[in-house]
Amino acid sequence: MGFFDRFKVKKVEGVDDTMYLTLREERQITKENTKIIREFERQKNRKNVKEEEYLTQMKDPSNVVEFDNLHTYFFTEIGTVKAVNGVSFDIPQGKIVGVVGESGCGKSVTSLSLMQLVQAPQGQIVDGSIRYLDSSGKCYDIAKMPKDKMLEIRGKEISMIFQEPMTSLNPVFKIGEQMDEVVLLHVDGATPESAKARSIEMLNLVGIADVEKIYNNYPHELSGGMRQRVMIAMALACDPRLIIADEPTTALDVTIQAQILELLQNVKDKINGSIMLITHDLGVIAEMADLVVVMYAGRIIEKGTVHEIFKNPKHPYTIGLMKSKPSGDTQDDRLYSIKGQVPNPINMPDYCYFCNRCDHAMKICSEEYPELVEFSPTHMAACHLYYGKGLLEQKKGKE
Ligand SMILES: Nc1ncnc2c1ncn2[C@@H]1O[C@H](COP(=O)(O)OP(=O)(O)OP(=O)(O)O)[C@@H](O)[C@H]1O
Ligand code: SF4
Ligand SMILES: [Mg+2]
Question: Which of 199, 214, 264, 339 suits 391 as a labelling partner, its CA being 20 to 30 A distant?
């Protein structure tokens, strides 16, 4: 081997070598990104924006939220990560919508877009709408809302419960202080006394026994399950219309997990609110959700009622997900896993993203991105198996 050959990049199996960039290319990307990001930030930071600019109409007033063709990108120095790439789904009033999909498919970025909490400046909502119907009946497009207006909605009408409560609770303040702050910030006319009364009421609601003691504890003095209850109590303090729960039980053991899920279900019924429930766990979805959205590589590949998705999944990825969940009556002691990996998010193909992993892939699948096909007014999937040239190809294959 020659001296310079030692420094040549070797082809590594499964690694996309079109992704190697020269320093010059990286600099060019950074320059372009800075221009794009600056314009988005300027729009968001505007003060005294007229309400008409971000007021809109719901497609269906029985929904609390309607994601419509949402695109959220990250402008990084190695290229644009299309984390959410044309996502549309509704969250109806009083319902639980489960969002599933493998790691990195854009579940959290979708929910963070709704809270305007995508990591800026590189993360930006670049297209689409997020319509939100507030308690007074006004409909806002959160994608166009300036930051100062969003502060009124975030934490009050829409609240969020994260996977690991320890990272969301401040370790140097007592539980009570942190809970009171939420009320003082969001409830008009709240006093320290009324805030404390509300915090105590919420801690009782989530089934905490020794409320006064917990109120005066620091987060590290509580168990994981207890901290998650506190997070739920905090999220409920301002009577939200929508709770976003991003993997709320992943860090908990199974028995506590069941208690927390039951609690979420109960509080949802009490406040007649809606929940966007993000999880890897199909068991949790089956138990809790009314509607299910299946995401893959930044897009929705199937959505439907929980019954439709579990009893009659259509997309090969959803079918794979169903097969990969543990079930007591499996004959085989090995759990099914979907082969291969999600494509590189910076270099997404313009055909079906699942093509390299799909046992049913046909010629058309590597030529065009499939449209969403409707199986019922609530059930749809994006797959060539069910329409147009894909159906013809299958027919020919069988002949
Ligand atoms: N700050 C960031 N900068 C660049 N890319 C990001 C950033 N945050 C998220 N991404 C990318 O966006 C995509 C979607 O990420 P997201 O966190 O929404 O995935 P997820 O579905 O919630 O996964 P998980 O189940 O692991 O939580 C991923 O490809 C991720 O690498
Ligand atoms: S479009 Fe083709 S490759 Fe994609 S999931 Fe359907 S059959 Fe598989
Ligand atoms: Mg996530």
Answer: 339
Distance from Cα 105 to the centre of ligand 1, integer Å: 7
Residue 123 DSSP SS3: strand
Beta bridge partners of residue 381, listed in sequence order: 302, 373
Query: What is the spatial distance between Cα 107 and Cα 342, in angstroms, rounded to a whole number?
Result: 14
Cβ 361 under 6 angstroms from ligand 2: yes
Q: State the residue for tokens 């299946």.
A: 294
CA nearest neighbour of 353 among 102, 139, 95, 150 = 102
Taking only the tens place, the pLDDT of each residue in 43-95 is 888 888 888 999 999 999 999 999 999 999 999 988 899 999 999 999 999 99
pLDDT tens readout for residues 268-317 = 887 788 999 999 888 889 999 999 999 999 999 999 999 999 999 999 99
d(CA 65, CA 87): 13
d(CA 310, CA 289) in angstroms, rounded, equals: 11
Compute, in angstroms, the gap from residue 78 CA to the centroid of ligand 1: 15
CA of 50 to the centre of ligand 3 (A): 34
297 Cα: distance to centroid of ligand 1 (angstroms): 10
* Cβ neighbours, 10 Å, residue 141: 18
Long-range contacts of range 172-180, CB-CB < 8 Å, 24 or more positions apart?
172/218, 173/218, 174/215, 174/216, 174/217, 174/218, 175/214, 175/215, 175/216, 175/217, 175/218, 175/219, 175/222, 175/230, 176/215, 176/216, 178/234, 179/203, 179/215, 179/230, 179/233, 179/234, 179/237
Whether ligand 2 lies within 6 angstroms of the CB of 354 is answered as: yes
Answer yes or no: is the C-beta of 99 below 6 A from any ligand 1 atom. Answer: no
Q: Which two three-digit tokens encode residue 162?
A: 């994260």
Question: Which ligand number lies closest to the CA of residue 110?
Answer: 1
Residue closest by Cα to atom 20 of ligand 1: 104
Tokens of residue 99, six digits: 């969002």
